[in-house]
Write a structure and sequence with these properties.
single chain; 162 residues; mainly alpha
Length: 162
């Protein structure tokens, strides 16, 4: 396989990966937006590890909880939209990785931690949240993650102005 074909395949795979994760994150944001009176308090109340004190503080401060809920919903929507469109991909990837890592730290799948919320599967240390966060870090540093999408047009427009 020649080098150009290999790069083209890599760009395609990275683009599909970016769009798939973007869809998942966007869907999570929209679903929270349309659920009447949705709040992160249920998720935060399950926190049992190093973020439990911080989560408890958020829950016990109604104004802080409202800000966290707002930022959570609209952050997910903005991150997902950016990843799908390939717009501000590096910022969206870093922001998404950070948010997902915070989710992971709130409720990690560690031995001895039991949660009352139903889990979709049994994990041990590695969960889909951690996998997505790590993948977003990869997208943030990949030279090909901005090869397809609106970032490409922004870059071309920037070069035309210079």
């Amino acid at each position: 396989m020649n080098k150009m074909k290999k790069i083209s395949i890599e760009i395609s795979v990275i683009t599909v990966l970016r769009i798939i994760i973007g869809w998942h994150i966007l869907y999570e944001g929209i679903s929270k937006l349309i659920i009447p009176n949705w709040s992160s308090s249920g998720f935060l109340s399950e926190s049992k590890w190093i973020m439990s004190g911080f989560a408890s503080w958020i829950i016990n401060n109604e104004s802080v909880l409202k800000v966290v809920d707002f930022l959570n919903v609209w952050g997910l929507i903005a991150i997902g939209t950016g990843l799908i469109l390939g717009l501000f991909t590096r910022i969206a990837s870093i922001s998404g990785a950070f948010l997902l890592f915070v989710y992971y730290l709130c409720n990690p799948p560690l031995i001895g931690l039991e949660y009352t919320l139903p889990a979709e599967s049994s994990y041990l240390i590695i969960s889909k949240t951690l996998i997505e966060a790590t993948t977003l870090v990869f997208l943030a540093v990949s030279p090909y993650s901005t090869s397809v999408g609106l970032d490409l047009f922004l870059e071309k427009n920037k070069n035309l102005k210079n």
